[in-house]
Amino acid sequence: MSIPVIVDCDPGHDDVFALWLAAGHPSLELVAVTAVGGNVPLEHTSRNARVALTVAGVMGVPVAAGAEGPLSRVLETAEWIHGENGLGGPVLPEPTVPLDARGATELIADTLLAASEPVAIVATGPITNVAVFLRDRPDLAGRIREIVWMGGSTGRGNVTPYAEFNAWVDPEALAIVVGSGIRFTMVGLNVTHRALVTAAVRERLAAVGNRTAAFGDELLDFFCRTNDEVFGMPDGPLHDPVAVAVLADPGSVELVHTRLDVELAGTETVGATSVDFDGMLRREPNAWVATGLDVDRFWGMLAASVSRLA
Ligand code: RIB
Ligand code: CA
Fold first, then answer.
1. Which ligand has an atom closest to residue 167 CA?
2. Which atom of ligand 1 lies closest to the CA of 82?
3. Cα–Cα 20 to 30 A to 155, which of 115, 189, 202, 310?
4. ∠ at Cα 253 (250, 258), nearest 5°?
5. H helices of the chain, where?
6. Phi and psi of 28, rounded to 5°?
């Protein structure tokens, strides 16, 4: 029985692979997509989500636009990694997947109400849309199976010394979602930095040989180049699909049940995700935190899933 999944994203190169893993993996059923302002402004992320599904031949999955920016901060984008339109590299086709007339909150609500079982949400950008949904539709929280989020880190950040980008853009939203009581899993940089797009990985994915893989290889060429220029990481870490892997193949990602808190006020540390593995603060565990990845198994599931697309 496949798990119904909503992907909330800010495409972004790695978000595209998260969408493809969710759409192509036999254990998952992609039932809706929502976009948020993050890597680039919402007008691009919502269009890019439609492009990702168009390229992959995934039709009939509604795509809605959500929040343009964080709950209470000014949006800071990441063109330095993803390019001006958010999907630097390939020429982008005109998306044939339409933008749903509903906003993210309405689409999530309708999706939960129509589902015959609780629906998982995988968020791969700033988690603003999920926080807004929980604020506006608390009556439907019980219909959410769990929330898995790519973001944060048990160690150093990637946008400030202590904050990862998705957490840094909207830490208030993250605090709301973590505090909601819905099972929450954080897949942070400490693990996604093991999902490195090496030359061998690029060859493995390109060898899938379909239209989706070819488009993906153009994305990876750009993504690896900018990660090299910005971070000195020529093998770009493909962050977002690792969050999807938690649901697609639970054994591929090691999780620890522990305490997670978000820094909201630190002048140097705002957006930091504080993971208290040793219980030093004596607070109740409130999240599952990824601590390991079976790297070969991960790339294998991604290649197999892409092979099931156009
Ligand atoms: O820090 C990496 C995360 O920020 C990824 O989700 C990437 O797409 C950006 O959103
Ligand atoms: Ca993302």
1. 1
2. 8
3. 202
4. 100
5. 13-24, 42-56, 79-82, 104-114, 128-136, 165-169, 171-178, 189-192, 199-206, 211-231, 241-248, 295-307
6. -125, 150
0.85 surpassed by pTM:
yes
Residue 293, token pair as written in the block: 């990845």
Give the containing element (helix H, strand E) for 261.
Answer: strand 260-262
CA distance linking residue 26 with residue 24, whole number of Å: 6
Minimum-distance ligand 1 atom for the alpha carbon of 237: 2
> Is the CB of residue 240 below 6 angstroms from any atom belonging to ligand 1?
yes
Q: Are 10 and 57 in contact (CB under 8 A)?
A: no
Closest-CA residue to 195 (of 169, 157, 214, 223): 223
Average pLDDT per 10 consecutive residues for the chain, totaling 310 residues: 97 98 98 98 98 98 98 96 96 98 98 98 99 98 98 98 98 98 98 98 98 98 96 95 98 98 96 98 98 98 98
Residues annotated as catalytic (active site), given as ranges: 239
For domain 3-307, the CATH architecture is: Alpha-Beta Complex (3.90)
**CB of 100 closer than 6 A to ligand 1?**
no
Nearest to 21 by CA among 228, 241, 297, 310: 241
Number of H helices, E strands in the chain: 12, 11
Residues with C-beta atoms within 5 A of ion ligand 2: 10, 12, 15, 124-125, 240
Residue 8 Cβ inside 6 Å of ligand 1? The answer reads: no
